[in-house]
């Protein structure tokens, strides 16, 4: 599966998260061969867990099936919104090769917008970053969610 195709699946997952009241963010982890290792949507509201971001849940699930313990060497994290500092740190620590995201997050993004955790030269691993994949669709989903929540 290509990152663009995986982003399509991440968008489906994100839409589902909005249905149960979570911010609509979805993530897919692709293995070195492009096969889906894991996928998840935000579940913070669903489980009352501040760490239940789509990226963290997908990385945890991928580590259980990848076969190299916690290291996701060769994997790609595809996510609808630019990772926050927690999720960017998780991507670095899991050793994914690449982070692909859709919409930029100027308020909390940590893959180049507000911070650049994933490419910080002081860290021992720096994934490649591909930004703006299906950005318009990813951004529209978030805008629609927040507009409906705020009654706009």
From TrEMBL:
CDD domains: nucleoside_deaminase. PROSITE patterns: CYT_DCMP_DEAMINASES_2. It catalyses: adenosine(34) in tRNA + H2O + H(+) = inosine(34) in tRNA + NH4(+). It holds the Pfam family dCMP_cyt_deam_1. Its EC number is 3.5.4.33. One of its GO terms (biological process) is tRNA wobble adenosine to inosine editing. One of its GO terms (molecular function) is tRNA-specific adenosine-34 deaminase activity. Its cofactor is Zn(2+). The keyword Transmembrane helix does not apply. Zn(2+) binds at residues 53, 84, 87. Keywords: Hydrolase, Metal-binding, tRNA processing, Zinc. Residues 1-114 form the CMP/dCMP-type deaminase domain. Binds 1 zinc ion per subunit. Homodimer. Catalyzes the deamination of adenosine to inosine at the wobble position 34 of tRNA(Arg2). This is tRNA-specific adenosine deaminase. It comes from Klenkia soli.
């Amino acid at each position: 599966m290509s990152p663009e195709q995986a982003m399509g699946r991440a968008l489906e997952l994100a839409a589902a998260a909005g249905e149960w009241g979570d911010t609509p963010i979805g993530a897919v982890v692709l293995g070195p061969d492009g096969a889906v290792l894991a996928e998840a949507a935000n579940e913070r509201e669903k489980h009352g867990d501040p760490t239940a971001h789509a990226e963290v849940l997908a990385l945890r699930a991928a580590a259980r099936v990848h076969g190299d313990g916690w290291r996701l060497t060769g994997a790609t994290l595809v996510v609808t919104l630019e990772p926050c500092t927690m999720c960017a740190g998780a991507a670095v620590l899991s050793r994914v090769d690449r982070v692909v995201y859709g919409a930029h997050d100027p308020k909390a993004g940590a893959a180049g917008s507000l911070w650049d955790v994933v490419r910080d030269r002081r860290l021992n691993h720096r994934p490649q970053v591909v930004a703006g994949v299906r950005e318009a669709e990813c951004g529209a989903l978030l805008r629609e969610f927040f507009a409906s929540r705020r009654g706009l």
